[in-house]
């Protein structure tokens, strides 16, 4: 019997905790079919290092992914240079990028229903001469879409970003009417598509302290954000703001909202991670495929110890499964 959902899981940076998080999944029964996209030898070496007895099964498109405890399906990717835990190796970077490309193309081709990503190390990939600013931007390029949206979520809070991995000095210039319009439309549409929110209520943060204080602390709210939000409201998108970010994240506002739209990375994500670190999920909206990820980094200091917790990965899988099923329902309706 064909599994209702099959998800590709990339193991991330070989020196980090990603491989052992993938292996931990084999300790329990899994509802969606999980196929780990990685070098099989890396998983074998890490399983031996942390003392996990896991049977790794070669997976081929169209076959059923293992869900029984003790077994894990693997789509092998060549090119790994070293398997040392905790020790970054730029020679592994091309392999890491290839695992992402393999999973994404598998989703585009209908082989997988979605992809879940363990953490990568952006620095070492760039050190290898490969321009890489993050999963979000890489998948945008692979999928050939003009705009994507990064959203992190817990069961209680969703925070999407207008800009992502930019130096703070570049943020203001990047918040244009066009970008803000595209991001807001994607957020509204995908909340409806993937999360069954019939009429999303979105809180929008201002860029400046006190949302500009009527222009005394910056004019981005007056010149760009407010006029753009007013036009979007005419499209039946429910938007509140721009609101001061220091008071937006309070029950008064959040209790009746479905998502927050923050202007930049460190405006919204510290609040969300403080509220739910280790059980949050990173979601890429605006893609033609489903993609979720963990909310943490490679944790090189924990790699190879067997002490890393898989809570965020399990959440990413659960949300990825939910989104994939929603996408399938929409396709057949």
Automatic annotation (TrEMBL):
Keywords: Cobalt, Cytoplasm, Magnesium, Metal-binding, NAD, NADP, Oxidoreductase, Pyridoxine biosynthesis, Zinc. Pathway: Cofactor biosynthesis; pyridoxine 5'-phosphate biosynthesis; pyridoxine 5'-phosphate from D-erythrose 4-phosphate: step 4/5. Its cofactor is Zn(2+); Mg(2+); Co(2+). Binds 1 divalent metal cation per subunit. Can use ions such as Zn(2+), Mg(2+) or Co(2+). Substrate binds at residues 135-136, 273, 282, 291. It catalyses: 4-(phosphooxy)-L-threonine + NAD(+) = 3-amino-2-oxopropyl phosphate + CO2 + NADH. The keyword Oxidoreductase applies. GO terms for biological process: pyridoxal phosphate biosynthetic process; pyridoxine biosynthetic process. A divalent metal cation binds at residues 165, 210, 265. The keyword NADP applies. InterPro entries: PdxA (IPR037510), PdxA_fam (IPR005255). GO terms for cellular component: cytoplasm. Its EC number is 1.1.1.262. GO terms for molecular function: 4-hydroxythreonine-4-phosphate dehydrogenase activity; cobalt ion binding; magnesium ion binding; NAD binding; zinc ion binding. It is found in: Cytoplasm. Catalyzes the NAD(P)-dependent oxidation of 4-(phosphooxy)-L-threonine (HTP) into 2-amino-3-oxo-4-(phosphooxy)butyric acid which spontaneously decarboxylates to form 3-amino-2-oxopropyl phosphate (AHAP). NCBIfam families: pdxA. HAMAP family: PdxA. Belongs to the PdxA family. Homodimer. The active site is located at the dimer interface. This is 4-hydroxythreonine-4-phosphate dehydrogenase. It comes from Marinobacter panjinensis. The gene is pdxA.
């Amino acid at each position: 019997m064909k599994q209702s959902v099959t998800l590709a899981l990339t193991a991330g940076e070989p020196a980090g905790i990603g491989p052992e998080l993938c292996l931990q999944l084999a300790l329990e029964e899994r509802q969606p079919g999980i196929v780990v996209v990685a070098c099989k030898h890396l998983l074998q070496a890490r399983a031996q290092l942390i003392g996990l007895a896991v049977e790794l099964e070669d997976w081929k498109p169209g076959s059923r992914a293992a869900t029984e405890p003790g077994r894990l399906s693997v789509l092998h990717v060549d090119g790994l240079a070293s398997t040392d835990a905790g020790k970054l190796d730029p020679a592994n970077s091309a392999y890491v990028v290839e695992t992402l490309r393999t999973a994404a193309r598998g989703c585009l081709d209908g082989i997988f229903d979605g992809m879940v990503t363990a953490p990568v190390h952006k620095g070492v990939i760039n050190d290898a001469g490969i321009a890489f600013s993050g999963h979000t931007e890489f998948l945008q390029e692979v999928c050939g879409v003009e705009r994507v949206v990064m959203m992190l979520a817990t069961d209680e809070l969703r925070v999407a970003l207008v800009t992502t991995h930019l130096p703070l000095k570049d943020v203001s210039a990047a918040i244009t009417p066009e970008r803000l319009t595209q991001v807001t439309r994607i957020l509204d549409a995908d909340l409806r598509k993937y999360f069954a929110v019939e009429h999303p209520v979105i809180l929008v943060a201002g860029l400046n302290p006190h949302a500009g204080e009527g222009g005394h602390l910056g004019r981005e709210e007056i010149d760009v954000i407010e006029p753009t939000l007013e036009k979007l409201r005419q499209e039946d998108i429910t938007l509140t703001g721009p609101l001061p970010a220091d008071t937006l994240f309070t029950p008064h506002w959040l209790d009746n909202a479905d998502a927050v739209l923050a202007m930049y990375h460190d405006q919204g994500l510290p609040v969300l991670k403080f509220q739910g670190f280790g059980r949050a999920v990173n979601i890429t909206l605006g893609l033609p495929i489903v993609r979720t990820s963990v909310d943490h980094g490679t944790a090189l200091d924990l790699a190879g110890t067997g002490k890393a917790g898989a809570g965020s990965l399990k959440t990413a899988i659960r949300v990825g499964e939910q989104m994939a099923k929603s996408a399938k329902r929409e396709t057949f309706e």
